[in-house]
Design goal:
The structure holds 2 protein chains of 2 kinds. By secondary structure, chain A is mainly α. Chain A is 87% helix and 0% strand. Chain B has 2 domains: 1-63 and 147-204, Rossmann fold, CATH 3.40.50; 67-145, no CATH class. Chain B has 9 helices and 9 strands. Classes of the chains: A mainly alpha, B alpha/beta.
Chain lengths: 267, 238
């Protein structure tokens, strides 16, 4: 088969699509690493405007709190309702609080908070920067000789680093309390038995790892969302694509980080 | 000297958008770059202000460059005051040069210059297209630039707003003595603001002269452009 004939075949089209996807994958990873390094450089070398940082912190931490608390609280309540009754029946009621505490501190709290933050804040960061890109606002910033990475990325990424841990702490507390209420309603387990058991399930190492995860997740979600928005092209469609890309890549990155943490600290 | 462009070349993939283009604009002069859509006019501006890299050639500029974007490009999360003061607040070399009262006074002065005093607290979404454009003028001149680039400044505006914008372009040139480039395809903007006109077609200069020479329609290119005819050497799909 000649090269010219091969170009028209389905196999060629599949290979070409795969090659395009691979190039796009590598290019996105390259963008994230590049802008991540620039952000860290400006984070440590330049000052951050307090007002801009506070605005972004309020956006990242405060405005996302209702949905984060709802998602973490509901997910723990659902687990507690299903598990508590069974465990009490099997005579393991004293371990319900411990189970919920370990579940919330090690996984559920941070993962569910991450999902909520990505859906609400990550998508909003990506669409905001993508809109700025396609409406030439970022070009205007560059022409005015202001570094767009320093102006746009640094306060947003720093707010992710600063706000994710408190969001995690509050949502985990709500999750554990919600788990206690659900356990009590589902199985009649006393609050005292539940919270005594919770204390037995709270390990300092778990809490430290969870806080470290929160910092890394906050950084990653904000960085990926900003990068996807910043590199957007085209018009309204480009904004939509950038937002979807930010959400998908943030989910993937969070799961990969979670796996890395599990391998390092709990394997 | 304001801007000197020598043998500028720019391609996107295999499509040559700017093909060995040369021209110069002195301080206090305005050059209008004209041509049909897709002829590379805006690309020239983006190359001059460094938004996109050139393939080859030389761009020599003296001093600060400011640009007025086609759709104003005001930062929509900032109010008018913060938009105009943006460079003074955020640019490293200017951050500590002015106190806030000084910045306030500069912003008021620039807003008055474009006839929009008292709208400092409004957001871009609360302004009409013409007002946004004038705010973007004020933002562009806040750093007293030596070169001002206008990307289709009257596009999408009604005739009266267009005239107002054209008057501001002339007034800014007189007051700042900046070298200006206006990308446009509107005849009124060319005749009212430009000292020289450069017509682009296929990335090349096909006419360079005064607005009066353009209006004389001495060449097939100027004849076709001024009469807005589909018949002539320039094809729209090129």
């Amino acid at each position: 088969m000649s090269a010219l004939t091969f170009r028209g075949t389905v196999t060629y089209l599949i290979y070409r699509q795969l090659a395009k996807s691979f190039v796009s994958l590598v290019s996105t990873i390259g963008d994230i690493v590049q802008y991540g390094l620039y952000t860290l450089k400006y984070l440590f070398s330049g000052g951050v405007k307090r007002k801009e940082l506070l605005d972004q912190c309020a956006r990242f931490g405060v405005s996302s709190l209702p949905i984060t608390l709802s998602i973490v609280g509901m997910s723990v309540v659902i687990v507690a309702m299903q598990v508590a009754g069974e465990m009490v029946k099997q005579g393991a009621g004293n371990f319900v609080g411990m189970l919920i505490a370990i579940l919330v501190v090690r996984e559920d709290g941070i993962i569910m908070s991450g999902f909520a933050i990505i859906s609400m804040i990550g998508s909003s960061l990506a669409s905001e920067l993508a809109t700025m890109r396609v409406t030439e606002q970022i070009d205007a910033i560059e022409v005015l000789k202001v570094n767009p990475i320093e102006y746009l990325f640094v306060p947003r990424v720093l707010s992710g680093i600063l706000m994710m841990p408190p969001v995690l702490v509050v949502s985990s507390l709500v999750g554990i309390v919600g788990g206690g209420i659900a356990s009590h309603l589902a199985s009649g387990l006393s609050y005292k038995a539940y919270f005594d058991s919770v204390w037995n399930g709270l390990y300092m190492k778990d809490m430290n790892v969870a806080l470290l995860k929160a910092v890394v997740f906050g950084f990653t979600i904000a960085l990926i969302s900003c990068t996807c928005g910043y590199t957007a092209t085209g018009g309204a469609r480009g904004v939509g694509q950038a937002t979807t890309k930010a959400v998908v890549w943030s989910f993937m990155a969070m799961v990969v980080w979670d796996l890395i943490f599990a391998l390092i600290f709990f394997f | 000297m304001g801007i000197e462009v020598k043998n500028l070349v720019k391609s996107f993939d295999e499509n040559v958008v700017i093909d060995h283009l040369s021209f110069s604009v002195n301080r206090g002069e305005t050059l209008a770059i004209i041509g049909f859509s897709g002829s590379g006019k805006s690309t020239v501006l983006k190359l001059i202000c460094g938004l996109i890299p050139k393939d080859s050639g030389e761009i020599i500029t003296s001093g600060d460059i400011a640009m007025v974007f086609q759709y104003s490009a005001l930062i929509d999360s900032l109010n008018v005051y913060d938009n105009i003061a943006f460079a003074l607040h955020e640019r490293k070399d200017l951050r500590k040069k002015y106190t806030e009262p000084q910045i306030k006074s500069i912003v008021r002065e620039k807003l008055a210059l474009v006839g929009l005093a008292g709208i400092e607290n409004k957001f871009p979404s609360e302004l009409s297209g013409g007002m946004q454009k004038r705010v973007s003028f004020a933002r562009a001149i806040v750093t007293e630039p030596d070169i001002i680039l206008y990307d289709e400044p009257t596009a999408g505006l009604d005739p009266m707003s267009s005239t107002l914008i054209e008057n501001y372009i002339v007034r800014l040139k007189e007051q700042t003595n900046a070298a200006s480039i206006v990308v446009t395809h509107q005849m009124s903007t060319i005749t009212r603001t430009a000292d020289q006109v450069l017509m682009l077609y296929g990335g090349k200069c096909v006419f360079f002269g005064t607005p009066e020479e353009l209006c004389r329609q001495d060449t097939p290119y100027t004849k076709q452009f001024v009469s807005a005819s589909l018949e002539g050497p320039m094809k729209l799909n090129n």
